[in-house]
Amino acid sequence: MLINNTPVAIAGGAPTAGQPSFRTALSAGDRNTPALAFFFASLDQRPSLADHIVVIDDPISSLDKHRALTTVQEVRRLAGRARQVIVLSHSKPFLCRIWEGADTATRAALEVSRDGNGSTLRVWNVNQDCVTEHDRRHAALREYLNTSTPNNRQVATALRPVLEAFVRVSYPEHFPPGAMLGPFRNLCEQRMGTAEQILEADDTEELRDLVEYANGFHHDTNPAYETVRINDAELRGFVERTLTFTRR
Q1: pLDDT, tens digit (0-9, with 9 covering 90-100), for 186-197
Q2: Alpha helices (H) in the chain, listed in sequence order
Q3: Does domain 2-11+19-130 sit in CATH 3.30.1330.40?
Q4: pTM above 0.85, yes or no
Q5: Distance of CA 179 to CAs 167, 172, 190, Å?
Q6: Where are the domains of the chain?
């Protein structure tokens, strides 16, 4: 194998002192990548692959996000050519991506679950685990508007994270990871009417109102947020406004 224009043997055995080897010249992820590529390449050489069951055990160990995505794509292609493909992994996000692109008529998912002093296999609800925390919060807001449950504290505490997620996706250059809504809102006000304007005046004012209310139910801005009395009519109004704002 050629690494940085230097030939490196991939065979086993003790390397020559002072010389690069497959074991020392590559990180764990870099070693796993060609090994996995060789495995997929070897499958391409099998003329009767359609009659084989392929088992892949934790293929993304030590792989970065790009290589993990490529692995997902290769597994999907393989599933259409082999008789059966079984993928084992500790990474639920990785398995969720394979599941989402698999044939719904032939896919199946199992998980190892603790059973007393041992363990057992049971059906895994992949769709439930594919739902993100943002999805759950957004669903909680929508469900709240369709029910008569009053004083829902979980809904109140979800307002600010929903706003943060929306701004993070819509204005990533102005709201990087770790940013806060307060400074972002101030930046919007400072740039109002300039060539670098971020939000319209009405939207900036609406964001200010929404954040002011949501801050009352967030631990960073109100240490007593868990005991704040919730007015159902007021909360319903801010939930409606938050959902409207995050649809823009």
Answers
A1: 999 999 999 999
A2: 22-25, 28-44, 65-79, 92-101, 126-130, 133-145, 153-170, 181-190, 201-215, 232-245
A3: no
A4: no
A5: 10, 10, 17
A6: 2-11+19-130, 133-245
